[in-house]
Design goal:
The protein is of the alpha/beta class. The chain has four domains: about 210 residues, Up-down Bundle (ABC transporter transmembrane region fold); about 130 residues, ABC transporter transmembrane region fold (Up-down Bundle), CATH 1.20.1560.10; about 170 residues, Rossmann fold, CATH 3.40.50; about 70 residues, P-loop containing nucleotide triphosphate hydrolases (Rossmann fold, 3-Layer(aba) Sandwich). It contains 23 helices and twelve strands. It has a six-stranded mixed sheet. Strands 4-3-6-7 form a four-stranded antiparallel sheet, with no helix packed on it. Strands 1-2 form a two-stranded antiparallel ribbon. Helix 4 packs antiparallel against helix 5, helix 8 packs antiparallel against helix 11 and helix 22 crosses helix 23. The longest helix is centred in the middle third of the chain and has 53 residues. The radius of gyration is 37 Å and the shape is elongated.
């Protein structure tokens, strides 16, 4: 039975925190029906669990009852044969109860794991299709918590809370029936003691709960400190600023506070054990006292009233009653915490459902289109966009990129250059105006088809923690070795790969940390080359490359862009000069557009950028050459 300081007991977990009380979920029929919808496919297995619990509760009574018969019939009657028979019967019932319990636990575990399997699949599929804005707004830790901790917690709800409630109810009901059947007088004596057991333990439990909460808060603080200072980036920062001693003192201080709180909690736990031990003995002692009184005295006279004792009461009945009373206390304690367990279970499901209810606003329409986008125009028609309605970022972006041409976008930092190109593959949707390709609004495209037609190389190159081959195959799963090598040759990364001990099976590390910035970016370019897109977007694709590496793949990029409609965001003048047209973004609009020479002659924003950024970079590159 659940009890003590575990789930369902009267220890620290038997109380709600202030935050839980404030955020207590509202119980509605809709919420309960939604929770039950996950249990419905396994109703037959649940029925088996409930039957097993009822059988276990019933069979679990028999050892206590048989103990009474052992005392009255076998020991008092000095019947060795009967003693052996009853002992074997008691052992058999205990074994049967245990076997039934194992069966019930197995089915319970199977049900809970299948439900977790279903919910994780549903959650992962849902999150995979959420818009990019969701991932920029939500904390990664929160997403992982919903996926793993919260959904895994459903197992505790099903195999712990739900089955515990049913099991405790079955145990209490069957035990009470047995107690009152054997002796209603002793049953009342045993039940009267229950409040004496519960009230002190709840008081001690609250104290431990407070200490445990404070300890957990300090543990979280210590974990945060460890996570920050012992990570790759954190430890590097500590070393560069020589803060090792300072960080050690911070850790030692927090660790000392955690240790003191843990000691206080453990000391209170020892006293709790003493109190529990004392009060759990009161019931049996009272039963022995009154049971002995009922046996010794045939009647008790209170004033003018004479109470006749139960003449059928025996030592065996008293012994069995004591065993059953001890069996009754813990489930009663647990049932008093139904509100706590129920509230936490609902809160868990509510947190999960909050994510399920987040709407995916960027989806394909029912009759989505798949037009040919090869060498077709990209048109921004008076586009407006903002991440925050009160802070518009783009107010009137209006331009056309003719099919097969390469346009460059430049502008001050934070002007919205990346946002402009992110609207083409619908990482975000416009707030006003429209973006169209081949004369079709991108919102009318089949979303998967649209993104399959677009290749993007970003400044912040991301690689999965796998091999070079696995990262390349992400672009084309059925690519041959020859295709991989051709793409890598074009991106000037093949020679580097074959010189590694494991070649294309070389591990790149977490986020590609085992590779340099230039190597990662060339792999990213090779990946896009392998995809062979119709539209190409380069968001400062050569920013992490040195001059030698950039020159090595510049021709490759030009070959890749040939015949493709391309948009390039670049800070390097060498890239910008090759554009058919340059768009200057500032103040939420296309402030200027034209060729390099035309824009310099205007003497506007572009010339200012050229004077402050591009010319210096060009001179620096010329000196290095």
């Amino acid at each position: 039975m659940a009890g003590g300081f575990g789930r369902g007991g009267l220890g620290p977990r038997g109380f709600l925190t202030d935050e839980e009380k404030q955020n207590m979920p509202k119980v509605t029929k809709k919420l309960l029906v939604r929770i039950l919808s996950y249990l419905k496919p396994y109703w037959l297995q649940f029925l088996l669990v409930f039957v097993a619990i009822l059988l276990s509760a019933t069979v679990g009574l028999l050892p206590s009852i048989i103990t009474g018969r052992i005392v009255d019939e076998a020991l008092v009657g000095k019947d060795l044969k009967l003693l052996i028979q009853l002992l074997l019967l008691a052992f058999g019932t205990m074994a049967a109860s245990q076997i039934i319990g194992v069966l019930e636990s197995y089915i319970n575990a199977w049900i809970s794991q299948r439900i977790i399997f279903d919910m994780k699949n549903q959650m992962y599929d849902h999150l995979q299709h959420m818009p990019h804005a969701f991932f920029t707004a939500e904390k990664q830790g929160d997403i992982i918590t919903r996926m793993n901790t919260d959904i895994s917690g459903v197992s505790t709800v099903i195999s712990g809370t739900l089955s515990s409630i049913v099991s405790n109810v079955a145990t209490v009901v069957t035990t009470l029936i047995a107690l009152f059947t054997m002796s209603w007088q002793l049953a009342i004596v045993g039940i009267v003691v229950i409040p004496l057991l519960i009230l002190p333990t709840r008081s001690v439990g609250k104290t431990r709960w407070k200490l445990l909460t404070e300890s957990q808060a300090k543990n979280d603080e210590m974990n945060q400190l460890v996570n920050e200072t012992l990570s790759v980036s954190g430890s590097l920062l500590v070393k560069l600023f020589t803060r090792e001693d300072r960080e050690y003192e911070r850790f030692r201080t927090v660790n000392e506070e955690v240790t003191k709180l843990n000691l206080k909690e453990q000391r209170s736990g020892k006293w709790f054990g003493v109190i529990m031990g004392m009060f759990t003995q009161i019931g049996p002692l009272l039963i022995y006292f009154f049971g002995g009184l009922f046996i010794i005295l045939s009647a008790v006279k209170i004033g003018s009233v004479t109470i006749t004792m139960d003449g059928t009461l025996t030592v065996g009945v008293i012994t069995a009653t004591v065993a059953l009373i001890n069996r009754l206390y813990r489930p009663v304690q647990s049932l008093l915490n139904i509100q706590v367990d129920f509230t936490r279970s609902l809160a868990l499901f509510t947190r999960i459902f909050d994510y399920f209810d987040m709407e995916n606003t960027i989806v394909s329409k029912p009759n989505a289109k798949k037009p040919d986008v090869t060498r077709k125009d990209i048109v921004f028609n008076h586009v407006a966009f903002s991440y925050d309605p009160e802070k518009p970022l783009l107010t009137d972006i209006d331009f056309t990129v003719p099919g097969g041409r390469m346009y460059a976008i430049v502008g001050p930092s934070g002007s919205g250059k990346s946002t402009v190109v992110n609207l083409i593959p619908r990482l975000y949707d416009v707030c006003g105006g429209s973006v169209s390709v081949a004369g079709v609004d991108v919102r009318d495209f089949d979303l998967s088809y649209l993104r399959d037609c677009i290749g993007v190389v970003t400044q912040d190159t991301y690689l999965f923690n796998g091999t070079i081959r696995e990262n390349l195959l992400y672009a084309k799963e059925d690519a041959t070795q020859e295709e991989l090598e051709n793409a890598c040759r074009i991106a000037s990364i093949h020679d580097f790969i074959v010189n590694q001990p494991d070649g294309y099976d070389t591990m790149v590390g977490n986020r590609g940390l085992k590779l340099s910035g230039g190597e990662k970016q060339r792999l990213s370019i090779a990946r896009v080359i392998l995809k062979d897109p119709k539209i190409l977007i380069l968001d400062e694709a050569t920013s992490a490359l040195d001059s030698i590496s950039e020159n090595a793949i510049q021709d490759a990029l030009e070959t890749l862009m040939e015949g493709r409609t391309s948009i390039v965001i670049a800070h390097r003048l060498s890239t910008i000069l090759k554009a058919d047209r340059i768009l200057v973004v500032q103040g939420g609009t296309i402030a200027e557009q034209g060729t390099h020479e035309e824009l310099l002659e205007k003497g506007g924003i572009y010339r200012e950028l050229y004077e402050t950024q591009f010319r210096k970079i060009l001179e620096y590159e010329s000196e290095r050459e």
